Task: structure prediction
Amino acid sequence: MIAPTVDDLQAITEQVWLSYLDPEGTDPLLPLPVEAPAAGVAASVSVTGAWDGHVVFTCSREASLRAASALLGVPADEVTADDVADAVGELVNVIGGNVKSLLPDGCLLSLPHVVTGEAAASGRWPAAVEVCRLQGVWGAEPVAVGVWASKTTET
Amino acid sequence: MHAMIIDDSRAMRLILRRIVTQLGFEVHEAGNGREALDVLQAMDQVPQVALIDWNMPEMNGLEFVTEVRARERYRPMTLMMVTTESEHGQIVRALAAGAHEYVIKPFTPDAIIEKLALMGLVPSGSTS
Result:
């Protein structure tokens, strides 16, 4: 079974950034081997069906505020927790939907789930293994997208 | 001209609102299909177009399309799916249920405008 790769994640996130966060192409997500934020925001969607797993978007709190500010058109210092959940949830929804398009037909995508703070840094899928991860910086802030496959899913 | 935007993400509704407002549409919003049916029922006129997400709580976009197509009053309304669902079978299901057009996220403003132009809802050559 074909599994998504880092190159796939890079192509998808480039499109997402150009469409919603960086339409001028001047502030892209730069792939760099940076550490994941200790306590930030994690948003995930689950894929079920012919392939089972999760697509997880993590970023620092500052990056989440920038994303919400850009998507919702409000100043970063006025962004609320609901704004962050909505904006980051939609980002992982779009990224996850495009990852799903690389998987076998017949998979379903869940609604997004967003957590913040220490919970965002903890591994929440003991029954899954990470199959690829794109790490980078947006501005100076860490951002990562990972794909986790259920241990029962053959990759 | 009126447009209905149906998406559970406020961010996505705002992105779409910016695009269609500049084309002269008066925009109505709903966070899922059920809410959209309520908004439509309260309106005097039928929107010319609805932009519809697929994955939403309570009533998803496909269920909304099916409901709307079963109601004569809404027959003139053009239905455009705007969704991350890109599987061929899903696109076929949506079109078979009565959707007229299909846009896959992520999209650029011009992609939405081109589809609206194809359906005769905005002049050809309109761009963001």
Notes: Chain A touches chain B at residues 15-16, 18-20, 23, 68, 71-73, 83, 86-87, 89-90, 93-94, 96-98, 100-101, 105-107, 109, 111 (CB under 8 Å). Chain A has one domain: 6-150. The mean pLDDT of chain A is 90.
